[in-house]
Amino acid sequence: MVTQSVLVVDDEPDIRELLDITLSRMGLETHSAATLQEAKDIVSRVQPDLCLTDMRLPDGNGISLVQYIQQEFPHIPVAMITAHGSVETAISALKAGAFDFISKPVELEDLRRLVSSALQLHADTSQARDAMDEGLIGDAAVIQTLRQQVSRLARSQAPVHIRGESGSGKEVVARLIHNNGPRSTGAFVAVNCGAIPPELMESELFGHIKGSFTGASQDKIGLFQAAAGGTLFLDEVADLPLAMQVKLLRAIQEKTIRPVGASEEQPTDIRLLSATHKDLANEVEVGKFRQDLYYRINVIDVRVPSLRDRLEDIPALTKHILSRIAAEHGKVESRLDKSAINALSNYTFPGNVRELENILERALALSDGDTVTANDFHLSNTPHTSPAAFSEAKIEHASTTQPQHDIHGDLEGYLGNIEREIISEALEASRWNKTAAAKRLGISFRSLRYKQKKLGLDK
Questions:
Q1: pLDDT tens digit string along 53-85?
Q2: Cα 387–Cα 321–Cα 313 angle in degrees, nearest 5
Q3: Residue 131: enclosing H or E segment and its boundaries?
Q4: Distance (Å, whole) CA 224 – CA 258
Q5: Coil, strand or helix: which one is 208?
C-alpha cells in the first residue's frame, strides 16, 4: 500500500515539528518547507497528497502558494493555517482555492479531521465528471460552465452560496457538490428557512434540551447536529430573521452551537451551502440581511441559469424527464412529436426546470397513447416576460411615471413598454454590442435577440 504524503509549510520550526509528529502518527509521510520557494520546489518534485501552509512566509504568503498549486497541480488540496480570529485571511484563502483552513493555536483533533477529509479526495475526477453529466443535463455553454464550477467546488470545504430563480435546480447543484466531495458519506441535510416559524428557528437549527421551554418534553438534536460530518444546505437563506442571522454567524465563525437551554457550546463539523432566489446583495443594502453573514456564506458564488437561458437543452431535458417518469410508473417511455418540441422551445418557463417537469407529467396524464403533442400541454399563447430582464427598482420607477389606467387596462402592453425601455437603455449603454448588453441585463444572447424581435427593437 502506497503511503500518502503531506507537505508542511511554516517558518516556525516548532510548528513544523508538532505537525510532523502528529501526521507521522497518522501513518503519513511528511515533507517540510520554511519558505515559499522551497515549498514550490517540493510540490513540483514530490507532488504530495496534501499541503498545509502557514499564511506568513519569509519570501511571500500562503495565498501565493495556493494559487500556484491550483494552477500547476489542481489535484493537490491545500489547507491554510491562519491566525486565530483572522476571518479575512481564511476567506481569502478559500476564494483562492484552498480546500479548508485551520486556526492557530492548532487543535490536533481538528487537524486530524481536516487531514483525513482532504486525503479522501482522489486525483481521478472521471467519476465526478460522470455524476455532473447525469445531474446537470444539457450542452448549453452556461451548463458546461456550471459543471466545471461544481466539480471544482466539490473538492473544497468553502461555504458556497447558490443563486438562481425558483425551480432552476439550486438544490440539485448543492447535492452534486456534496455527493462528489469528501463528505459524501455523511448526511446531506436540506432545510427551507422560509418554511420554519421564527419562534422555532433556533430550536430547529441548534436543537434544545428537555424542559428548556413549554412543550420541550425531551432533548432534540438540531439540523447542525444532524448534518455532522456532512453538509447543511440552507435554502432560501434570505428569509432568516435578523435575530437568527446573528446566531448563525456565530455558529459559522466559532464552529460551535449552543442548543436552546444548554449551558455549554458544542463543536460542529459541517460544510455549509446556502441558496436563495433573491438578490442577497440587495437584501444587505436594504438592511434585511447582515453584511458580515453575507461575507461568510458567500465565499464562493454560483449562479444556476434559468431555463429560458438554455432553451437549446429542452430536447435533452425532456428525454431525461420522460425516462424518469416512465421508470417511476413502470410504463413505456413516451415521446414528444415535433409540435410538442416546438411548443416547449418557444415557451419561456417562468417556473424553470420544475415547471417543465410539471408540464410533462400533466401532459402524460392527459395524452392518449405514447405520443405527446403540443395540444397536450395547454400552454399560454402569450410568452411570459423574463424577470431577469428588468429590476424591481426599474418597475417601481416606471409605475410612478405611467398612467394607472395603462396597468389595469393593458398589463401586457404596460410591462412590454417597461421591458422595451430597459433593453433599449442596455443596448445604448453597450453601444449596441448585443453580447455586452445581454451580460448587463443578466440574460443570454439568445434571449436578448428573441426579446428584441418581440419588442420591435431589431429594426
A1: 999 999 999 999 999 999 999 999 999 998 866
A2: 50
A3: helix 126-135
A4: 10
A5: strand
d(CA 424, CA 418) in angstroms, rounded, equals 10
Q: pLDDT by residue (tens digit) across 220-231? A: 889 999 999 999
Q: How far is CA 216 from CA 7, 220, 221, 226, 279, in A?
A: 49, 8, 12, 18, 36
Cα separation, 119 vs 173, whole angstroms: 23
Q: Which domains does the chain have, with CATH numbers?
A: 5-118 (3.40.50.2300), 126-303 (3.40.50.300), 307-376 (1.10.8.60), 387-455 (no CATH)
> b vs e for 191-218, b when ≥16 Cβ sit within 10 Å of the residue's Cβ?
bebeebeeeebbbbbbbbeeebeeeeee
User: d(Cα 160, Cα 274) in Å, to the nearest integer?
Assistant: 6
Cell digits of residue 114? 481536516
Mean pLDDT, the chain, whole residue set: 85
d(CA 283, CA 240): 11
**How many residues appear in the chain?**
459
Within 8 A by CB and 6+ apart from 438, the residues are 444, 445, 447, 448
Do residues 160 and 299 make contact, with C-beta atoms less than 8 angstroms apart? Answer: yes
Copy the grid coordinates of residue 313.
437543452
The structure's pTM equals 0.76
